[in-house]
Write a structure and sequence with these properties.
About 45% of the residues lie in helices and about 20% in strands. The protein has eight helices and twelve strands. The mean pLDDT is about 90.
């Protein structure tokens, strides 16, 4: 595994379990971040952008299923649930909420690591299949390298501008709502700050459109959101 790209978020309120799992995950060459509550987990997920989440359902501030539902509104990162709840309806509810896998405590570390590897492989395969280089008009975007050019000339985007552009590219021409974009780019707590989008879309148009006042690619869908037109 590539420790530079494989990031795992561990959301578990038991400190001893977190230490144990962190050691096992780091032995696999993974970058690990931790949270001990739903609220902290969502903040970490938004800031760290993990490729995979390992989640306990019994968290002190809310049920872990709430974390899954909120995460799924802006992220497709696989979620592996680790829980002492072994009843079928609990497993079904977690999977219906958007979890990808479910292991009942106590669990075997080799089995967990095998599942972690499998989900990360699938995630990398999906990223490759979607392509790492996108273009529209005279603009070319290398998603892996975070490089943007227009007519062959480098264009400097701030990290937030790049995240917004990448979200629109991943939308593949679909209209993305204000809420979807705010959650994906800025994270929880910003879902009602539509003015952020107006400001940053204006900046992107200045840098990427031939005529920012009459954009051909970064399109506004009135009262709904934005889409990227002409994507190749």
């Amino acid at each position: 595994m590539n420790a530079l790209s494989d990031r795992v978020l561990l959301v578990e309120d038991d400190a001893s379990i977190r230490r144990f799992l962190r050691a096992a995950l780091e032995d696999e060459g993974l970058q690990v971040s931790e949270a001990d509550s739903v609220r902290r987990g969502l903040i970490e997920a938004a800031s760290r952008q993990p490729q995979l989440v390992i989640l306990d359902l019994g968290l002190p501030d809310a049920d872990g299923k709430q974390f899954i539902v909120e995460l799924r509104s802006w992220s497709e990162a696989p979620v592996i649930v680790l829980s002492a709840r072994d009843r079928e309806h609990e497993k079904v509810a977690a999977l219906d909420a958007g979890a990808d896998d479910y292991l009942t405590k106590p669990f075997g570390v080799p089995e967990l690591m095998a599942r972690v590897r499998a989900h990360l492989r699938r995630g990398r395969g999906a990223a490759t299949s979607h392509g790492q280089v996108a273009s529209f008009g005279a603009v070319q975007v290398d998603l892996a390298r975070h490089e943007v050019t227009r007519s062959g000339e480098p264009v400097h985007l701030t990290p937030t501008e790049f995240r917004l552009l990448a979200a629109l590219i991943r939308g593949n021409g679909r209209v993305l709502t204000h809420r979807q974009l705010l959650l994906e780019v800025w994270g929880p707590g910003y879902a009602d700050r539509a003015h952020y989008l107006r400001i940053y879309m204006a900046q992107l148009r200045q840098k990427l459109e031939s005529d920012p006042a009459l954009p051909l690619h970064l399109i506004t869908e009135l009262q709904v959101g934005y889409r990227l037109a002409g994507l190749n």
